[in-house]
Amino acid sequence: MTDVRITKWAEVLVNYSLGVKKNDLMQIKSSYLADPLIKEVYRLALQNGAHPYVTYIGEGLSEIFFKYATEEQLNYLSPIERYEIEKIDKYLFIIAEFNRKSLSNVDPQKLSLRRKATGKLLERRLQRAAKGEMRWSLTAYPDNAQAQDAEMSLEEFSEFIFEAGFLNDKDPIKKWQELAKEQQRISKILSKVDKITIKAEGTDLTLSVKGRKWISCEGHENFPDGEVFTAPIEDSADGVITYSYPCVYQGREVSGVQLRFKKGIVVEAKAEKGEDYLRSMINIDSGAKRIGEFSFGTNYGIKKFIKNILFDEKIGGTIHIALGSCYPETGGKNKSSLHWDMICDLRKDSEVLADGKVIYRNGKFLI
Fold first, then answer.
1. Which of residues 135, 164, 193 is at a domain's end?
2. Which of 164, 199, 228 is a domain's end point?
């Protein structure tokens, strides 16, 4: 028997997050570990009159690919994938992993090459989404790999997800609509701001967001959700930021990260662990050295860092600054094959100033 919360989850994804309607071509992509949720989403999409299909990710295929792929194969993009990006109306990716460390020992240069190639697909998907031509959503299904990283049992991790997504509530969609209203209020105020300064231990960073659009993340592109973000002016970042938590990317962990910016560009990158990997990623292309996203996490139902960016970047009382590609709908111009979110906890001894006025202190908005 399917947990009623799985059914609620599917209802939120299909009817709220993606707004699946008649004749939509919908791709659902995941591993078989997420089958209970896949089946519910598939059923509801059919009931809405859509044309859903499922693409399964097999266990161990990525490891085989990076072990045997030539440089030509690392740079190759399937015409079928290109076609899908152009034709899909709704796209759902469900994270459900067998081993989150499976790529830990892969040559970073191979990862960089592949990321640069697949970044073209990401860029095109973001372009279509910005124009309203398609909608996409990302969620994570409870599995043992993610639970282990979170230092939880599978049952505890499941409850963590249900709580973060308001799925224990009688009407989760109503809760997301209430959060949306509050975030839209905050976004409207921030849209009038020019300079933002973040002050915390090891952090004194100023950037400009003048004229850029603030986006309220309300459970559509990500689920669970809870953030307001924009893209800073590309050459405006100046100062230093020290990230509070390990930065995990493609299964590789980099910790103790400190970045120094001058005229928008990373001029110094340090890490206590994984510094070589950090530098290889920010050297993928010129855009990887610039900030593509600045965001406030607003989901206070997520309290614990679990090494899973889908949840961690939403933690109420944190900010995250992503190196690399921006989201075009913000008005940002930075392009890159990289988009690496890194989190700074501001819940203690911190302030954020907007045009010289304190608007945020110790993890809470004052506006």
1. 164
2. 164
Average pLDDT over residues 209-231: 95
Residue 50: which domain range?
Answer: 4-164
Q: How many domains, the chain?
A: 2
Q: Is 228 exposed, middle or buried (0-12, 13-18, 19+ CB in 10 A)?
A: buried
Q: Give the percent of the chain with pLDDT over 70.
A: 100
How many helices and strands, by DSSP H and E, does the chain display? 11, 20
Q: What is the mean pLDDT of residues 51-66?
A: 94
Q: Does 1 score more than 70 pLDDT?
A: no
Number of Cβ within 10 Å of residue 362's Cβ equals: 13
Count of Cβ atoms closer than 10 Å to residue 188 Cβ: 11
**119 or 354, which is more confident:** 354
Distance CA 27, CA 165 (A): 22
d(CA 45, CA 297): 30
